[in-house]
UniProtKB/TrEMBL annotation:
A Pfam match: CorA
InterPro entries registered for this protein in UniProt: CorA_cytoplasmic_dom, CorA_TM1_TM2, MgTranspt_CorA/ZnTranspt_ZntB
Record organism: Polaribacter vadi
Catalytic activity: Mg(2+)(in) = Mg(2+)(out)
Protein name per Swiss-Prot or TrEMBL: Divalent cation transporter
Localization annotation: Cell membrane
Amino acid sequence: MVEGFLENTTIIDYSDKNYQKTKFLSISQVNLTPHENGTKWINTYGLAYQSDFKAIILNNKLDDFLIKLLMEDDHATKVILLEDLMFVAIKVLKTEGKTLEDEQMIFMVSPHFLWSIQEKPGDYFNWIRERLEGHKGIVRKKKADYLLYLIIEAIIDNYQETYLKHEEISDSKLNATHIKPTPEFTSLVESRKQELFSFKKAAISLRDMIVKLEKAKIRGIDVKYFSEIKEQTNNLITNIDFELQELESKINLIFSIQGHRLNEVMKTLTILSVIFIPLTFLAGIYGMNFHNMPELKSENGYFILLGIMVLVTVISVWYFKRKKWF
């Protein structure tokens, strides 16, 4: 497991004047003690290296409560304050594929280092690495708290971009001109709703974490950065709620269209039934074979009855037209 851990772990050691990116050759090289005025960003892909995590925590004399936290298989959104250290866990969405999946992310933050552990390989933090390497902006002048702020902001931006991209696709398929009461259209609406529920769950989890970070009080970590990004998550949640309401309106419109079509069919069948009921009645009377029915012996009885039936039909249709039933 050591080789797997080392292959999936990198370290960026930076300060205002220095930058170095390296990989480890052994667990003993994982030193979380920074250089003077420097900051370290250790990033690990994978959660299955418990023995390696334990060795690093003990070698660097970190709070051993971290060992217990890292041994847990699944974490809800949590922010735990330890001595000069903060443990942060959250579930985030993986948006690279066609379907939205979630992954566990863990951050251990002190004033001088940030250790990020991601459940699955790949992320959307390359722009942060590029800014560190190119000395762009103020990131290399700041400490690990600002780095955590940038990582959280990258997660929010990724949510926003993916949400807007899916929203455009959804609008093209589910706009008002394409509303049809068909199983296919209903399936598209329900599929989009499930996507939005996933986005909303992830955004609420992220907002809860930011709220907890805002209230954290730990020496050397400035929480003012996190207040700036809480509004972004609130805006995303608001947009999601608004689209969910739109989708509910479309579902209600589909049911209304189906109900209207059913009413039209029932009205047509009812009108036809009302027209043919008196005709059936007359046919039933003169279909009886009694000898004392004088009309049966009438030479023109058949034609008279047909005329009466036509007259009844015309009167019925005129009456329905007058009442604007069709």
